[in-house]
Write a sequence for this structure.
């Protein structure tokens, strides 16, 4: 029996332990790779899911704002000077006639202002009023609310020689168009 002791220890004990350790090492390595792959896939899924939710939220916002886009396109396609004149007439009807009076409305032929340096089509409008500060301010707010494509370019306020409560206003707008 003494002769077989070394092969028995080698093939019966050492080799099975080495083989078991190799199988455990390979198993541990595969498990760590699978865990890393699973964590990577979880992170990728979270990023995908967050991007999908964000995209869905943006799509919902766009869907809600589609009516506004159509309104904007419609408003930008209207002829600016006549639209401004119509709005000013409606606004003036709502305000006290003693406190607001439109004294001039012109559309200069020469381009100028912000629109002349932009690629977007625009026109220039000059409007003059005589009235009280508060009433004219309300008129401007109402006009700019109804026509957000107007961009204030110049505003001059001068006192009136005849009445101290009235002021002369001259305003220049750049009206952005389609």
């Amino acid at each position: 029996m003494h002769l077989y002791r070394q092969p028995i220890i080698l093939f019966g004990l050492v080799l099975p332990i080495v083989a078991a350790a190799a199988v455990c090492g390979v198993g541990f390595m595969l498990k760590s790779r699978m865990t890393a792959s699973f964590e990577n896939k979880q992170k990728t899924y979270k990023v995908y899911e967050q991007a999908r939710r964000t995209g869905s939220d943006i799509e919902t916002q766009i869907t809600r704002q589609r009516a506004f886009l159509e309104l904007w396109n419609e408003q930008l396609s209207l002829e600016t000077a006549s639209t401004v004149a119509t709005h000013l007439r409606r606004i003036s009807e709502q305000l006290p006639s003693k406190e607001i009076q439109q004294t001039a409305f012109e559309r200069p032929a020469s381009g100028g202002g912000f629109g002349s340096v932009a690629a977007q089509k625009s026109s220039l409008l000059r409007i003059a009023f005589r009235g009280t500060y508060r009433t004219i301010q309300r008129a401007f707010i109402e006009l700019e609310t109804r026509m957000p494509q107007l961009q204030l370019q110049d505003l001059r306020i001068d006192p009136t020689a005849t009445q101290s409560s009235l002021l002369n206003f001259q305003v220049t707008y750049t009206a952005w168009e389609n």
Summary: The longest strand covers residues 122-131.
